[in-house]
C-alpha cells in the first residue's frame, strides 16, 4: 500500500496519455458490461429458483396444444409434487410494436409454482377472486402507465372471442415484482385467468399450451420426465418434458448463437485493447528508464521494480475498467427506458467478477514485457538513459 | 497565447471536428467533393507542397514506430469489421424477407392476425375468398388462389443438433402458378394426397435430414422428401407439402391463409371492398409485399441499432487510441517540426500533414476491417427465429454500400483522432519544442 503514491505518480506523469488510455479501457469495458448482460439474459439466468421445475410441451411443435385431461395424469406420476398450466395468448396492446408476453394461467397453482412472482397479499386475493382479472409485472406497468383498477384491452391475434370479435378486456388487479434482479424478465409479463380465456375463446376449448411440473427432488427430474413422456408416447399428443432452463435455452438457441456473436465482438475489442494499453505501457516505461535507474540506486530491489510496473498497468486497467462497468451499469436502465422496456437488461454479479478478472489478467499481460525489461535494467545503463 | 484561452480553443476545435465528422457521415459525397478541392491546393500552392513534404517525412518514420501505429490501424479495423459484420446481418435478413412477395398477389388472413401462424380461416371462408371479384382466373376459369395450412414442426438443426421450429406450408394445387419465382431445382413436386415434401434450399442447408430420398417425421408420421425448391426469398426456409395432407397430419380443420393473384392494378381495392362487405367473413387483406416487409421490420431495426451502438462505443475507444498514438508521434517528431517552423514553414502545412498521416492510417485500418468482414461474413448462412415462431434462413450481405459506410466511419475516426495532435504540433511555441527532450 505504501507504494500507491508512487504508482499514482507514474500514472500522472503524462496526464493526457493516461486519461486517453483510461477512457479507451473504459469504452472497452462498458461494451463488455452491456454485451455480457445480453449474454446472461440469453443464457437463461441460473438461479436456485426453478431448479425443480420442468416444462411439458408438445413434442411435435411449439404451436401444438396439449389436452386439459393431461393435468390429472401428470399429477399422478410418482415424484411430481405439483402441476400448473399456461397458454400463450399473443394479444396486442394498441399497436403490434408494443410486444410483451401475455399468458393465460390458472392463478392459484401458477403463483405457487413461481415464487419469484411477488404479489401483495390483497392483490393476490383479488386475482383469485376476479374472473376477468389480470396481473402485470412492474416494468410492464411502468411502460404503459398502468395502475391497479385500469381496464386493459388486448387485441387477439390467435384467439378471437366466441362472439367473433378480437377485443378482450381485462381488469388489472395486481402488479408484481421479481424476487431477484436476475429474474427481472418476468416483470415484462401479463398474466390473466385461464378459465376466463377458455370460456371466451372461439376454438381450442379444453387444451392448454404447456404444463409446468414441480418435482419432489431435482435429482429425480430425469426419471419423472421420462415417465411423463412414456405415458404419452405414440399418442396423438406426444410430450417433451425438459427442465425449465433447457426449455428457455432451446428458445434462445433458435434465435441464434448469441454467445458466439458476443465473444466475436469482445475478441475484437480486447485484442485492440491489448495492443493499445500494451503500447502505452511500453512507451511510458521507455521514457522513465532513468527514473527506474534512480529507484534501483536508492535500494529498490529488482523484484520491487517488477511489481511496481506490473502494479501500474493493473491499476490502469482496473481504474478504467471499473469506470466502464459503472458506465454500463448506469446506461443499461436508460437503454431499457428508451426502448420502452424491450431491452430490460441488468448486470449480473457474475459479470462484475468476470470483468474484474479480465482487467487484472489484461493488466498483467500488458504489464509483463515492460516490467521484465525494467527488472533486468542495470543501474549504469538506466542512468545513462538507454 | 494566454493560458485561459487554451481550453476554449480546444473546445472550439472539438466542436468543429464534430461538425465536420457529422457532415461527413451525413453527406459523404459533398464532403468528398470538398476534400477533392484541396488536392490542387496541395499540389500547386507552396504551402500545400510544404504540407505534402512534411507528411512524406512523417510517413517515412512510420516503420520506426510500428507498434504505436498499428494501434490506430488495428483499432479502426476492429470498429469497421464489427460495424460491417452486424449491418450485413441486418441487411441479409431484410433482403430475405423484403424480396418476398410482390404487388400482384394478396394474402388474406383472419381479421386481427398479424402472422399466418396465428390466423385461421374455415373452408366456407376459403371458397368465398376464392370466388371474390378481383381474383385472377386461369384459362379454365379457375381462380388462381392457394389456401394454405401453415404449421411449425420441430426439426433438428445441423449445427447444434437441437430442435428448431421449421415452417411447414401445405399449399393448394395453384401454388406453383401463383408463385412463378419458386423453382424446383432437384427432384420433383410432391403429389397431392401423399405424404411428400419439397424442401427449401435454405432449410436443407440448416436442418438435418432434408435430402430428397430421405424421410422425416412430422407429427409422428413419415414424410418423404421428394424435391428441393429455390426462390431467392424466404420460401427457401420453408418446407412445402400438399395442403390437405398437412392439415390431416396436424388434425387441422382450418386453413391459415389464402394467397390470390390479383386481376389488375385496381383489383386489391375491389377485393378488399368485396370481402369487407360480406358479413360471413372477418378478414384482413394486403399485398404479399407489404405483409412480408412488415415481418422483417422489427428484427432489422434492432440489428441495425445494435450494430451502430456497438460500433459507436468501439469507435470512441479507437479515437482515444488514435489520439494517444498521434500525440506520441507528434511529440517524437517535436524537434523536427519545430525546426521546420523555425525555418519558416507555417502552422497550416504542419496541421495538414499530421491529418493526412492519420487519415491514411485510418483508411488502411478501414480497408483492413472491411476486407476481413467481407472475407469472413459475405454469404455466411444463418437462421434465426422470425416473427411467425419459425426459422428464417438468410445470408449475411456485405454490400459495397456497407463497405463504403465502414470506410466513412474509419475516416471520421481518423479525422477526429488526428485533429488535436495536429493542432498541438502546429501551436507549441517553437522555443519550447526545440528545448524539449
What does this structure look like?
The complex is a heterodimer of chains A (about 375) and B (about 425). In chain A, helix 1 packs across helix 12 and helix 2 packs antiparallel against helix 10. Helix content of chain A is about 55%, strand content about 15%. In chain A, about 40% of the residues are buried. With about 375 residues, chain A is of the alpha+beta class. The longest helix of chain A is centred in the last third of the chain and has 37 residues, at about 300-340. Chain A has 2 domains: about 5-45 and about 255-385, no CATH class; about 60-235, no CATH class. Chain A has 14 helices and 12 strands. Chain A starts with a helix and ends with a helix. In chain A, the strands form 2 sheets. In chain A, strands 1, 3, 4, 5, 6, 7, 8, 9, 11 and 12 form a 10-stranded mixed sheet that branches. Chain B is elongated and about 95 Å long. Chain B has helices at about 5-25, 30-45, 45-60, 65-100, 125-130, 175-180, 200-205, 245-250, 265-275, 290-330, 335-340, 345-375, 400-425, 430-435; strands at about 105-110, 145-155, 165-170, 185, 195-200, 215-220, 220-230, 240, 255-260, 285, 380-385, 390-395. The model of chain B has no long low-confidence stretch (mean pLDDT about 90). Helix content of chain B is about 55%, strand content about 15%. In chain B, strands 1, 2, 3, 4, 5, 6, 7, 8, 9 and 10 form a 10-stranded mixed sheet that branches. Chain B contains 14 helices and 12 strands. Chain B has about 425 residues and is of the alpha+beta class. In chain B, strand 6 and strand 7 (about 220-230) form a beta hairpin. The longest helix of chain B is centred in the C-terminal third of the chain and has 45 residues, at about 290-330. Classes of the chains: A alpha+beta (about 375), B alpha+beta (about 425). At the A-B interface, helix 2, helix 9 and helix 10 of A face helix 4, strand 2, strand 3, helix 10 and strand 11 of B.
Amino acid at each position: 500500500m505504501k507504494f500507491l503514491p508512487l504508482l499514482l505518480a507514474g500514472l500522472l506523469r503524462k496526464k493526457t496519455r493516461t486519461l486517453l488510455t483510461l477512457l479507451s479501457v473504459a469504452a472497452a469495458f462498458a461494451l463488455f458490461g452491456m454485451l455480457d448482460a445480453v449474454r446472461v439474459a440469453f443464457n437463461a439466468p441460473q438461479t436456485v429458483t426453478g431448479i425443480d421445475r420442468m416444462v411439458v410441451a408438445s413434442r411435435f411443435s411449439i404451436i401444438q396444444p396439449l389436452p386439459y385431461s393431461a393435468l390429472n395424469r401428470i399429477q399422478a406420476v410418482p415424484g411430481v409434487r405439483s402441476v400448473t398450466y399456461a397458454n400463450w395468448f399473443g394479444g396486442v396492446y394498441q399497436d403490434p410494436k408494443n410486444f410483451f408476453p401475455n399468458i393465460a394461467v390458472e392463478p392459484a397453482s401458477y403463483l405457487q409454482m413461481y415464487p419469484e412472482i411477488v404479489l401483495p397479499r390483497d392483490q393476490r386475493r383479488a386475482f383469485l377472486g376476479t374472473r376477468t382479472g389480470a396481473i402485470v409485472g412492474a416494468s410492464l406497468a411502468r411502460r404503459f402507465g398502468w395502475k391497479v383498477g385500469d381496464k386493459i384491452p388486448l387485441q387477439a391475434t390467435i384467439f378471437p372471442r366466441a362472439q367473433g370479435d378480437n377485443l378482450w378486456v381485462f381488469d388489472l388487479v395486481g402488479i408484481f415484482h421479481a424476487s431477484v434482479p436476475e429474474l427481472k424478465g418476468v416483470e415484462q409479463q401479463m398474466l390473466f385467468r385461464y378459465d376466463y380465456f377458455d370460456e371466451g375463446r372461439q376454438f381450442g376449448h379444453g387444451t392448454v399450451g404447456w404444463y409446468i411440473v414441480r418435482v419432489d427432488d431435482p435429482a429425480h427430474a430425469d426419471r419423472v420426465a421420462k415417465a411423463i413422456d412414456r405415458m404419452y408416447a405414440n399418442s396423438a399428443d406426444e410430450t417433451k418434458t425438459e427442465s425449465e432452463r433447457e426449455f428457455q435455452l432451446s428458445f434462445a438457441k433458435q434465435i441464434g448463437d448469441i454467445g458466439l456473436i458476443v465473444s466475436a465482438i469482445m475478441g475484437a475489442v480486447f485484442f485492440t485493447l491489448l495492443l493499445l494499453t500494451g503500447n502505452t505501457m511500453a512507451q511510458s516505461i521507455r521514457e522513465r528508464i532513468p527514473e527506474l535507474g534512480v529507484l534501483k540506486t536508492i535500494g529498490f530491489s529488482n523484484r520491487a521494480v517488477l511489481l511496481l510496473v506490473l502494479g501500474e498497468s493493473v491499476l490502469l486497467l482496473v481504474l478504467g475498467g471499473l469506470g466502464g462497468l459503472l458506465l454500463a451499469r448506469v446506461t443499461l436502465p436508460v437503454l431499457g427506458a428508451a426502448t420502452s422496456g424491450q431491452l430490460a437488461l441488468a448486470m449480473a454479479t457474475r459479470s462484475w467478477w468476470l470483468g474484474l478478472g479480465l482487467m487484472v489478467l489484461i493488466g498483467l499481460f500488458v504489464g509483463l514485457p515492460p516490467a521484465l525489461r525494467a527488472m533486468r535494467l542495470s543501474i549504469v545503463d538506466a542512468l545513462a538513459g538507454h | 497565447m494566454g493560458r485561459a484561452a487554451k481550453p476554449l480553443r480546444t473546445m472550439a476545435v472539438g466542436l468543429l471536428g464534430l461538425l465536420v465528422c457529422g457532415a461527413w457521415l451525413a453527406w459523404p459525397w459533398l464532403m468528398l467533393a470538398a476534400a477533392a478541392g484541396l488536392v490542387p491546393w496541395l499540389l500547386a500552392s507552396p504551402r500545400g507542397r510544404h504540407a505534402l513534404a512534411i507528411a512524406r517525412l512523417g510517413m517515412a518514420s512510420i516503420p520506426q514506430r510500428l507498434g504505436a501505429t498499428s494501434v490506430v490501424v488495428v483499432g479502426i479495423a476492429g470498429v469497421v469489421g464489427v460495424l460491417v459484420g452486424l449491418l450485413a446481418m441486418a441487411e441479409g435478413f431484410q433482403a430475405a424477407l423484403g424480396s418476398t412477395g410482390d404487388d400482384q398477389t394478396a394474402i388474406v388472413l383472419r381479421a386481427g392476425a398479424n402472422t399466418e401462424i396465428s390466423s385461421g380461416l374455415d373452408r366456407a371462408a376459403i371458397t368465398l375468398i376464392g370466388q371474390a371479384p378481383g381474383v385472377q382466373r386461369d384459362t379454365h376459369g379457375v381462380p388462381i388462389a392457394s389456401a394454405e395450412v401453415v404449421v411449425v414442426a420441430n426439426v433438428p438443426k445441423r449445427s447444434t443438433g437441437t430442435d428448431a421450429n421449421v415452417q411447414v406450408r401445405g399449399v393448394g394445387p395453384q401454388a406453383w402458378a401463383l408463385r412463378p419465382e419458386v423453382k424446383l431445382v432437384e427432384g420433383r413436386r410432391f403429389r397431392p394426397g401423399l405424404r411428400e415434401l419439397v424442401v427449401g434450399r435454405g432449410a436443407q442447408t440448416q436442418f438435418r435430414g432434408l435430402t430428397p430420398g430421405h424421410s422425416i417425421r412430422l407429427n409422428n408420421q413419415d414424410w418423404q422428401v421428394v424435391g428441393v425448391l429455390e426462390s431467392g426469398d424466404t420460401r427457401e426456409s420453408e418446407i412445402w407439402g400438399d395442403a390437405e395432407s398437412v392439415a390431416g397430419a396436424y388434425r387441422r380443420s382450418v386453413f391459415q391463409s389464402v394467397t390470390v393473384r390479383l386481376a389488375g392494378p385496381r383489383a386489391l381495392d375491389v377485393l378488399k371492398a368485396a370481402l369487407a362487405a360480406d358479413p360471413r367473413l372477418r378478414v384482413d387483406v394486403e399485398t404479399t409485399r407489404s405483409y412480408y416487409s412488415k415481418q422483417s421490420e422489427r428484427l432489422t431495426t434492432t440489428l441495425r441499432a445494435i450494430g451502430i451502438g456497438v460500433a459507436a462505443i468501439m469507435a470512441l475507444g479507437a479515437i482515444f487510441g488514435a489520439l494517444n498514438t498521434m500525440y506520441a508521434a507528434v511529440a517524437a517528431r517535436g524537434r523536427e517540426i519545430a525546426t521546420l517552423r523555425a525555418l519558416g514553414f507555417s502552422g497550416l502545412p504542419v496541421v495538414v500533414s499530421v491529418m493526412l498521416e492519420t487519415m491514411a492510417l485510418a483508411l488502411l485500418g478501414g480497408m483492413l476491417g472491411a476486407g476481413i468482414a467481407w472475407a469472413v461474413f459475405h454469404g455466411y448462412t444463418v437462421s434465426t427465429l422470425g416473427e411467425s415462431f419459425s426459422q428464417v434462413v438468410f445470408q449475411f450481405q456485405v454490400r459495397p454500400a456497407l463497405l463504403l459506410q465502414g470506410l466513412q466511419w474509419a475516416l471520421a475516426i481518423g479525422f477526429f483522432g488526428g485533429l488535436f495532435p495536429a493542432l498541438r504540433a502546429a501551436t507549441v511555441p517553437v522555443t519550447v519544442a526545440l528545448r524539449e527532450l
